[in-house]
What we know:
Elements: E1 8-9, E2 18-19, E3 22-26, E4 30-31, E5 37-38, E6 41-48, E7 58-62, E8 89-90, E9 95-96, E10 101-105, E11 120-121, E12 126-127, H1 137-151, E13 159-163, H2 165-176, E14 183-187, H3 195-209, H4 226-240, H5 243-249, H6 270-283, H7 288-300, H8 311-314, E15 320-326, H9 334-346, E16 351-356, H10 370-381
Parallel strand pairs: 7-10, 7-13, 8-9, 13-14, 14-15, 15-16
Antiparallel strand pairs: 1-2, 3-6, 4-5, 6-10, 11-12
Amino acid sequence: MLEPPTTSTQEDPGEVGLVQWKDFHWPHSFTCDSGDTLPELTLRYETYGQLNSRRNNAILVCHALSGDHHCAGIHDLKDRKAGWWNNIIGPGKPLDTNRFFVICSNCLGGCQGSTGPASNNPETGRPYHLDFPLVTIGDMVRAQHLLLTEGLGIHELAAVIGGSMGGMQVLQWGIAFPGFVKKLLPLATTARQNAQAIAFNEVGRLAIMQDPAWNNGRYAEDEGPDVGLAVARMMAHITYLSDAGLQEKFGRDRVTTKKAARQLFDAEFEVESYLRYQGQSFINRFDANSYLYLTKALDRFDLYGAEERMEEQLQAVAAETLVVGFTSDWLFPTAQNRAIVHALLRCGKRASYAEVDMSLGHDSFLVHAPELYKLVTAFLKA
């Protein structure tokens, strides 16, 4: 068993400072919900703060589709950006590292150090590619459970928190391991995606698979379907924003003429330039096959089931739950977030709903959001 690592040093008030990722390796077979088996698995993770002597102050952060394990601090003093949720994790922040031991792992099927389609299959010595099992949200959660219990010796969580795909994992934690978690904080999420969300994912997948460099998923490292992946990211990123947010940030502003001369269909408007930047930066850090697998896991997540009764699944939840929706989120609208709470209440569970009025769309949970900070802080103190 690995000893719980200390991976943060506080350099400035309110910051966790320098952090270092670690790998948890499970050398035994792991059977996925599909019935397929991985001979072994690795999860890359980071921790912030200290585990107390009772080992009961841990909070698990679950990342969204394009996220990873690096959610706070910096890896090097030269880093220009901190982790993706640095605004909420650290001393005196809502996930207060003076009080909590915060953990985040790159999910199973990912591409930032955890076992996924780009990983080598130890039985063949070659990358899995499309031989990788079709993982589910449930598989991700069970792998995280192994990390906590077998890797860190943690058998109780003060809370699990995450937004979007991370919120789905939070709900699955409450269902699969009800005695393990004290509080659930799913943000900007849904019990199942509607047809529109599935449609956007399918267009993104087709953009990747129609790229000749995809090669039926068997592309070499650094030779993947960059064009298709960039287009998929650009389109998905639009769904994470809102009309009002885009208008406020870009409007119809044009790219400054001080930049290099443009060809006929180069980016003319600032919003075009922004999306192209998002697509280009994404291909530098994400694997195309992982994108296919993770979006399919999103599509298949369904707490309603064949009987169209969410209560059948949520009856298992024992944790107190706070679901937070955002008014401008049109990918997972507020009604979908409220429906989770209504179902929990019908099951007699301790559940509440809060709605944050922001104009930035689905990604509102990732940006500076004082009202969200107050909600999280109060819920964790209660």
